[in-house]
Amino acid sequence: MALSLELDAVVIAVSEQVPRVLSARSPEGVAQLPSGPFDPMVDLTLEGSLRRWLLDMTGFEVGHLEQIFTFGGHDRDPRSRISGDRILSVAYLALAMESTPIESSDWIDLYAVLPWEDHRDGRPSVIRSHIAPALQDWAEASNSASARSARRDRLEAIFGFQGGDWDPIATVERYDLLYEAGLLEEAKRDGGAQPGIIIVESTAMALNHRRVLAKVLSRLREMVSYRPAISELLPTTFPIRKLQRVVEAVNGASVSPQSVRRLLDRSNLTEGTGEQTETAGRPAELFRFVT
Questions:
Q1: For 237-289, how does the pLDDT look when each residue is reduced to its tens digit (9 = 90+)?
Q2: pTM score
Q3: 125 φ, ψ to 5°?
Q4: Is position 179 within any domain?
Q5: Host domain of residue 280
Q6: Helices (H), the chain
Q7: Maximum distance among all Cα pairs of the chain, rounded to whole angstroms
Q8: Is the same domain home to 148 and 80?
Q9: How many domains does the chain divide into?
Q10: Rounded Cα distance, 282 and 261, in Å
Q11: What are residue 6's DSSP bridge partners?
């Protein structure tokens, strides 16, 4: 059995409160993350390899890169199922400044891919109208009482259907549950959806790339809570309101300006510039991240 290594680039930008991810197209025309092989004969490092082929493939030159996770499931790539070879994938996160042009069709709305993750306006309608009843039917369809109980507990822990807390970090767990229940296009593609199951309306991705995106989003949400990773999504100076909106876009949840200000005061991540925005409304103080 042969072993090969591929690199996945998850490049995220926020524009007008919409988080977007840089995409490519598979040979079948399905959205996928920009991906390429690591060639040890050409590149000295994994990061250098990713930078090289990402620029060649998309014309996009990334700044800071962070290695997030290695995916090695035997079924992540149909080539593995055919040949029996194992293809490992290393996912990297890169953040793009808001000023980066993203009008191109190569950027897709992150919440079109993971629509159940955007709670800025309350629980998404797709959960209320489709996901909740479909998952509850799935839970009750199990053959044993203990299995049904375990599934109900899982639904509550991951989606909080009975009023439980919503954990914004549990993005992979939610994807895996929807896939297992056959509610995603990827499950239908892989033969895991039962006849008659209605697929959740969303943007599917090639290979296991939607799961990779869910994993990286979880990591980004963790990072925003304790380190200035969000600075790479913002211009050099910004009002607190803009920072608040970018944090909300990433977290998929509303936060108050006071909460953002308290977080920054405690962490000493930012400092005032002494300047103000020039708008028709009330001027706002401009801040910058401390380097």
A1: 888 888 889 989 999 999 888 877 777 776 677 778 778 776 656 778 888 88
A2: 0.89
A3: -60, -30
A4: yes
A5: 226-289
A6: 46-58, 78-83, 110-113, 125-126, 132-140, 145-159, 171-180, 185-189, 209-226, 240-251, 257-267
A7: 66
A8: no
A9: 3
A10: 18
A11: 37, 89
